[in-house]
Amino acid sequence: MGSDTPTDLLVAVDPPSGRGAARHSRRAARPRPDRRPGVLLAALLTGGLAAAALGFPGPAGAAPGSTSVLVAQQQLLGTEEQLEVLPRASVTVAEAEARLREVAASRASRAEAAARAEAAAAEAAAAAAEAARPKAVMPVDGARLTSGYGSRWGTFHYGIDLAAPMRTPEYAAADGVVLRAGAASGFGLAVYILHDNGDVTVYGHMDKILVEPGEYVDAGDTIALLGNRGQSTGPHLHFEVHKGGIDGKRINPVPWLRERGVDI
């Protein structure tokens, strides 16, 4: 009698018998469907929508609540491969080839522009150098005028003599083309240069010639080394100017040089 339940309330219930027993047995044996996944999905969806409505943040770059819904779907419906996935962005081969051609054309255009700029810079530098260089020079630097143009010792001296040490460089007095270079009567060795105005300058008595006929020379280019060959009393350059050509009138070289900015 120590039990809290009165014994007179205990009622024995016998299991049903006959047809009722069979129906009871079938109901007991049939498994009941598990409605928990559907309930869970509905709960997650509702929770995700509620989170989105309330503005709870999800992962970076995702709309609020969207990630939790997706996770729930994946957990309940399958893996990512089983879900509908949007196709990745792509281009056609023809579009890619067209883009490659565009890039190649752009690079070629830039290279051409750079080459033009470089050529223009080189041309400008050459023009500047041309403008800066002298158009006429003294035939011998530091030389001493020892004899002028005119009468001398009972004859006529058709040039000027410029004395300097042996093998001093001799220069083209102005731009021109070498007409002759070699042995010459009375000069031992001589060089003749034709200039653009038709005049010819003559250089005599040199020890060594450094140019050849047909060679173009700029004013100041070295053409020979000063010497004492031919009819000479000492190392010097005999310099003449023939007006209008090699057989033209021999004029005074001093005014000819002065007209070109060279003073003796």
TrEMBL record:
GO terms for molecular function: hydrolase activity. Residues 1-35 are annotated as: Disordered. Residues 21-30 have a biased composition (Basic residues). Pfam families: Peptidase_M23. SUPFAM superfamilies: Duplicated hybrid motif. Keywords: Hydrolase. Gene3D superfamilies: Glucose Permease (Domain IIA). It comes from the Bacteria. Its EC number is 3.4.-.-. Residues 156-253 form the M23ase beta-sheet core domain. It is an enzyme of class 3 (hydrolase). This is M23 family metallopeptidase. It comes from Blastococcus goldschmidtiae. The lineage of its organism: Bacteria, Bacillati, Actinomycetota, Actinomycetes, Geodermatophilales.
